[in-house]
Amino acid sequence: MTTHIKQITSESLSEAKKIIFDGGVVAIPTETVYGLGGNAFDDSAVEKIFAVKGRPADNPLIAHVHKEYDLSNIIDYDPPYAKALREAFLPGPLTLVYPSTGKVSPCVSCGLNTLAVRIPAHEGAQAFLRAVDIPVVAPSANISKHVSPTSAQHVFEDFNGKIPLILDGGACEGGIESTVCDITGDIPVILRPGLITKEMIAGVVGACEEYTPALQEGEKVKSPGVLYKHYAPRCKTALYTDTAEAVNACQAEKRAGKRVAVLCEEEKLPCFAREGVILFNLGKTEEEMASRLYGLLREAEKACDTLIAVKPTKQGGKMTGVLNRLTKACLSVDIKH
What predicted TM-score, i.e. pTM, was given to this entire model? Predict the structure, then answer.
């Protein structure tokens, strides 16, 4: 199979629509990360996504729809506060988990009676979703557990020869996956943090809780990104809170003959300037750190043997999502020194 990267035009959208309705898979841009899209009603298409990604079968998918789509086709109940959330944040990087009508493939939610739904803000994604006019499941367009893609080239690096078409919508501005919020109860519960924060949601509907994974045996998760190591570069990684410890780790790895890189916020870069390591600037603001994270992780895996990451000083708010991704990306064994 030959994989083509194409700009979003009426011709490429027609091609993408044909692939989707033929049961195939198309990579699409969103404002967060690129997604690997397939027909949510088609069992074989959904199964194909799991197969090509190497995704665990118990990790549910998110259905993407355009902003005019009639949600009553796919959700069984619309909680009273859900409309306020949609008006405040959608289209945008927020996924809402509803009770499902059961009309989409059971593979989408891994047998659960809920369905995660997202309305992306990216104009290219909206054009694609209007063209197909059906729910499209679109997990991040990367090999499972690898760093999520924020450009068409990132998708190509993981899926060249495995999918026919990548719709190129430019660099993703958001940079980390959407916030996933369970709205099947009286109070919204964040299952996966992102750029729409707990405080922002509570500010609209009065209250919001955060889910802490503590699954009982046999219990299934309602959201992607809850279990497993995720977002990981293909190099040795370690994450430090203390900058001095990170400097010591750099020195130890260099003595061992390793190519070493450091990923940290801009204000901490001078601490590593004399260590003779590759420096990756995560940025100053929450938005910069979110948008740069995955691209820098992909650069790092090509440039070094060992990546030393340092946790940003700022906590809470949008940084909750950034730290969630950074921590999951660096779950390999700590470096000894």
Answer: 0.92
